[in-house]
Design brief:
homotrimer, alpha/beta, UDP-N-acetylmuramoyl-L-alanine:D-glutamate ligase, nine-stranded mixed β-sheet
Chain lengths: 272, 272, 272
C-alpha cells in the first residue's frame, strides 16, 4: 500500500531542512538518513532562506523556541516555493509564549501537516492547556470512548488550517477535513525515550517531500513506519536483554532496514 | 534502603526542567525518562518561569554558559516555589567567566544539591583553579590519604551553602554539614564517555523532586544508581565485545531496568 | 606506521576545544574520549580565549554558523599559541553566508588542516557551489578518472592556505603542497549516519594536538582510523543484525578499542 511512497524517498533522497530543538536534533538527522533522505539543520537567520531554496521539505519543531525568527523566515520561503512544511507544536499549551507563537504560525503559514500528541493538538484546536511539559497529559489519552470526538476535532482543525493532522500516541490518528485513518501500531517503550515525536515529524517530512502530491497517504505511511519499527525494536530489545537507550538505536536501525513487506505484515491501519 | 525513593520517581513521574549544555542534553533527557521522570529542556527567557511553575524540579548545568540569564530567572522562580534546584558547576575553575557565575549563583540561589567532580567542588570551596576543561585534574584524585580532608571540605561547603554536596569520581562523596557517605561503585569506563556527570546531576534532581523531604538520601540513592548501573553496563560491554559508545547506551538501559534489589546487591556505601 | 601517533594521544590526553554544530556535538565529544583525548565545547565569546589558552588543539566546524564571532576570537588565540587549528567547512557552497565566512576564515586564520567532502573542498578551492546541503553532490564523486585532478586541486589549495588538505569520501585524499596519500578504507554505511565527517575532523585534531610536529602523518592516521573502524563497525552491524544507529555506536566503539595492529591489518593507504 505504501511501497511507492517509501521507494520515492530512497530514489529522490530529498534534502530536508529541519529547524528543531537541540535535545533530539541528532536523532532527527539520523532517522532522515536511515530513511534515505538528506538532512540539513540550518537555522541562522542570515542563511535559512538560501538553504530552504535548495530543499525539498521543511520541518518547524517548536522545541527550540528561541529560533522563532528563523522559523518565520524559512516558512515564508518554503510556502513561496510550495514545498511541504511540517509543523511540530512541541509543548503547545505549556507556556503563554508557545501558545502565542502557535497562533502566529497558524495565521501566517500554510503547513502541509501538523503532528503532535493529543494534548498539543487539543491546545491548537480548542485552546486548552493541559500539556505536561513535552508529554501528553494522562487525562488526554485516546480511548474507544473518545475516539470519535478526537477524529472530529482533527477533521475540524484540518478544515480550519488546510493541513493534514497527525495525532500520535497509543492510538494514532491521521486526518484531513473529510478522511481519517486510525493506526494502532507502536509500543509503550516509545514514550520512554526522548525524540519519538520529533523523529516522526521529521520522517513525515521526508515522505511528503518525496511524494508532494500525496500528503495524506505519505503522512499515514510515516506514522505506520514509526509504529511498526517501534514493535520490531521492542522485540530486539527483549532479545538482547537491553533497555530504553538500545531501543532508541534499534528504532532507527529498523527504519534503515525496513521495506514495504515488513510494514504490511504488521500494519494495523483502519479507515475510520 | 532506597526502595521507596526509587518507587516514588516512577509513581510521581516528576516534571524536571533542565537548563543544560547542548553536548549531553539528549542523554540527560533519556536518563530522566529511563528513571520514570518527565524531561523538559526549556531555556528561552520568555518562558522559563512559566515552565518552572509547572515543574517539580530544576537542574542548572553550567555547561551552556550563555544561558546564564535564563538560569537566574528560573532559579528565582524555583526558590519561590520551594522545589529542588540542583547545580552542576561544569568546568568551574576553567575560566574567569565560570568562576564569576559560580560566585553569583552561590550568592543568589538556594541549591538543594551541588554535584561536581573533585576539581569543580574544590574550585567552589577553595577558589582553586586546577580544572582541566570539563574533566577533573589528575592531581585532584580522591585517595585513602586525602579522603578525610575531602569530606571536611564537602561538609564545610555544605554549611556555607545549605546544599547537599555530591562529589563524583572513582570514590564518590555525599555530604551535608554533619553527615557523609562514601560510595565506591562505578567503573573507569564512565570517564570515557561524555555526560556521566551531567546525567548523574539530572538523575539526582529526579530523585529529589519525587522525594523533596529526603534530599540527602535521594542524592545518595542517585549516586549509587549511576555507579551500580556503570558496573552492570561494563559487564554488558564485555559480554557483547563492544566499546565506549555501546557502554553509554547500556548505562541508560540499566537505569531503565533497575530495581532496588539490583542496587542493594552491589551497593558499596559506607557512612563516613 | 602510525603506532607512535596513536600512543601519544592516549599518553598526552590533549584537551581539545571544539566549536561545532549542535547536531553531532555529542558524537564529537565521545570520539575524542574514545581516542584518549579530553573534549571541551566552549563557545561563549566571554570565555573562549580563556579555554583555548589551556587547550592543545582547536576545531572550527562551520555547522553552527551563528558562532562565527567565537570562532574568530578563538582561532586568533590559538594561532598566537601555535596550537593546531582544524577547519571543517560544513556545507561550504550551500549559502552565500557560508561562502563569505569561509573566505574570511581563510584570509585571517592559519589552519593546520582543512577537512571536508569533495564538494566542500571544491567550493573553497574553485568557488564552485554544487554542495547538496551537508552532503557531497553526486556529480563530485572521486573516481579513477578524476583522481589526479582532485589531488592537484588539493595540493594547490594546500599551497595557497599552508594547510594540510583532507578530502573524505569513498576514496580519501590527504595532501600538502607536495605530497599526497590516497586512502581506500571505510564503508558506504558511514554516509548513512550524521557526523562521520564532523567526527573525523575532531579525531584529526586530537591526533595533531598530540603530535604537533607531524601534522601530515597525524591527519593520515586519523583518516585511516575512521575508515578502518567503519569497516569493523559494518561487520559488527551485520553480525548483530542491526542497522545505521547501532553502526554509529560500533564506529565509536572501535575507536575506543583500536590499536595500531588492528589498523595496519586493514589499512589501504598509497602514496600518490
Amino acid at each position: 500500500m505504501f511501497s511507492d511512497i517509501m521507494k520515492n524517498v530512497k530514489a529522490k533522497s530529498p534534502l530536508i531542512n529541519v529547524i528543531t530543538n537541540f535535545v533530539t536534533v541528532n536523532d532527527c538527522a539520523n532517522i532522515l538518513l536511515a530513511a534515505g533522505a538528506s538532512p540539513c539543520m540550518a537555522y541562522d537567520i542570515r542563511e535559512v532562506e538560501d538553504i530552504v531554496s535548495i530543499s525539498q521539505g521543511l520541518v518547524i519543531n517548536l522545541g527550540a523556541i528561541e529560533d522563532d525568527r528563523a522559523m518565520l523566515l524559512s516558512t515564508k520561503k518554503a510556502n513561496e516555493m510550495k514545498i511541504p512544511v511540517i509543523f511540530d507544536p512541541v509543548a503547545a499549551g505549556a507556556s503563554r509564549l508557545r501558545n502565542d507563537l502557535c497562533t502566529e504560525f497558524l495565521q501566517n503559514v500554510k503547513f502541509s501537516v501538523i503532528r503532535g500528541n493529543i494534548s498539543e493538538i487539543k491546545s491548537l484546536a480548542l485552546g486548552s492547556s493541559t500539556t505536561k511539559g513535552v508529554d501528553a497529559a494522562d487525562a488526554d489519552e485516546i480511548t474507544e470512548n473518545n475516539i470519535s470526538e478526537v477524529v472530529k476535532m482533527a477533521k475540524s482543525l484540518s478544515e480550519k488550517t488546510g493541513s493534514v493532522i497527525a495525532i500520535s500516541g497509543k492510538t494514532d490518528v491521521v486526518a484531513d477535513h473529510q478522511r481519517a485513518y486510525i493506526i494502532k501500531n507502536g509500543h509503550p517503550m516509545m514514550a520512554l525515550i526522548t525524540g519519538s515525536g520529533c523523529m516522526l515529524t521529521t520522517l513525515i517530512c521526508a515522505y511528503c517531500a518525496a511524494n508532494p502530491d500525496r500528503i495524506f497517504e505519505s503522512t499515514a505511511a510515516a506514522v505506520c513506519t514509526m509504529g511498526v519499527c517501534g514493535e520490531y525494536a521492542y522485540q530486539k530489545t527483549i532479545d538482547t536483554d537491553t533497555g530504553t537507550s538500545s531501543f532508541r538505536n534499534y528504532l532507527i536501525d529498523y527504519v534503515s532496514k525496513l521495506d514495504s513487506e515488513m510494514i504490511e505484515e504488521r500494519m494495523k491501519l483502519e479507515v475510520y
